[in-house]
Amino acid sequence: MHPTLAADLARLPELLQSARDFAAHELSGVGERPVVSPAKAPDPEPLPTAGVGAQGALDRFARRWEPGFSGSAGPRYLGFVTGGATPAALAGDWLTGAYDQNGSSGGGSTVDALERETVGWLRELFGLGEAHGGAFVSGATMSNTVGLAVAREWLGERLGVSVSRAGAGALGPVHVLSGSPHSSVAKALSVLGIGRDRLRPVPLLGGEREAVDVAALAEALESLDGRPAVVVANAGTVNTVDFDDLRAIAALKERYDFWLHVDAAFGAFAALSPARAGLVDGLDAADSICVDLHKWLNVPYDAAVQFTRRQDLQVRVFHNESPYLGLPSGTPDFLHLTPENSRRLRALATWFSLTAYGREGHAEIVERCVTLAGRLGEGIAAVPGLRLLAPVHLNVVCFTLADRPTAERLAAVARAVADSGEAFLTPTVLHGTPALRAAFSNWRTTEGDVERVRDALARAVEGLSAAGGV
Question: How far apart are CA 149 and CA 156, in angstroms?
Answer without folding.
Answer: 11
